[in-house]
Design goal:
By secondary structure, the protein is α/β, with parallel strands linked by helices. It has a single domain, classed as Alpha-Beta Barrel (TIM Barrel). Helices cover 36% and strands 20% of the residues. The chain contains ten helices and twelve strands. Helix 5 packs parallel to helix 7. Bound molecules: zinc ion (2 copies).
């Protein structure tokens, strides 16, 4: 199995030692394990500083990759927070080290932390068109990432989720842009922990639109921040990929995609 989205205490929202997470992955028989700790400069909540001690982080990645090389392939990754005005900081971070894999995620939009009530409780149509419009604009400018993280993260926080038709044109524009830029998306199984029901991440409709637009690069990840969530429901993610017509999952090394059969 391949877990391509995980965190450790290098992220502001996790207390778990990286080595403990990795040992859990080894015990589960996971073949490739991507550590994708947060780097989210200018995160819109003072209580969370998603800075990253790059030197310490990469030293630990190197150490563990070597120590456990016979048991597991450790993928040296990052999850960056994309916002309009932080492009330079993200470019600087990804350029300082030969990372294998970069997830580009939206945790903030239009100047707000997306989980903030003053954002998430906007009228559904305004919220969704605003969020996906902002994503489209940002991805038109920022290209230094490999897959888009948790596409519909807004579903988790929105007071009301509108019909897909309300914002589908924007999703179609985004998937076309992703495909044109050679970027992937991820199936993020945290939706099953959050009890999102049919609103999987991405939704079946979004995944279908990406594949229909010619997209082939799909990773799967648990988004684990705690040991018990490592490898969480990845079988279900593979099933979703198959149902969308995919025959391969994407893996990464040195920012280059490689495909594995499913
Ligand atoms: Zn995220
Ligand atoms: Zn994450």
């Amino acid at each position: 199995m391949y877990d391509y989205h995980t965190h450790s205490s290098f992220s502001a929202d996790s207390d778990e030692a990286l080595e403990v997470m990795l040992l859990r992955a080894i015990s589960l028989g996971i073949k490739e394990y991507a550590v994708t700790d947060h780097y989210d400069p200018d995160y819109r909540n003072e209580a969370y500083r998603f800075e990253l001690d790059r030197a310490l982080y990469t030293r630990e990645l190197e150490r563990l990759a070597g120590k456990y090389s016979a048991e597991i392939k450790l993928i040296k990754g990052l999850e960056i927070g994309i916002q309009h005005d932080v492009t330079e900081a993200c470019l600087a971070m990804t350029g300082t080290y030969p990372f294998d894999f970069i997830i580009g995620s939206f945790h903030c939009a239009e100047g707000f932390e997306i989980c903030a009530p003053e954002y998430a409780e906007r009228r559904a149509e305004e919220l969704y068109r605003g969020f996906y419009g902002y994503m489209l604009q940002c991805l038109g400018l920022y290209k230094d990432y490999d897959v888009l993280g948790h596409f519909n993260v807004i579903d988790r926080y929105a007071a009301h989720i509108p019909e897909d038709e309300v914002y589908r044109d924007l999703v179609e524009d985004i998937v076309r842009l992703l495909v044109a830029d050679g970027k992937g998306i991820e199936i993020n199984t945290s939706c099953f922990r959050y009890g999102m029901g049919e609103r999987t991440t991405p939704t079946a409709d979004m995944l279908r639109l990406y594949v229909k637009a010619g997209g082939e690069i799909v990773t799967i990840g648990s988004d684990a921040h705690r040991v018990r969530d490592v490898g969480f429901m990845l079988d279900r993610a593979v099933l979703m990929a198959r149902e969308a017509g995919l025959k391969y999952l994407a893996t990464f090394e040195n920012r280059e995609v490689k495909f594995v059969k499913i």
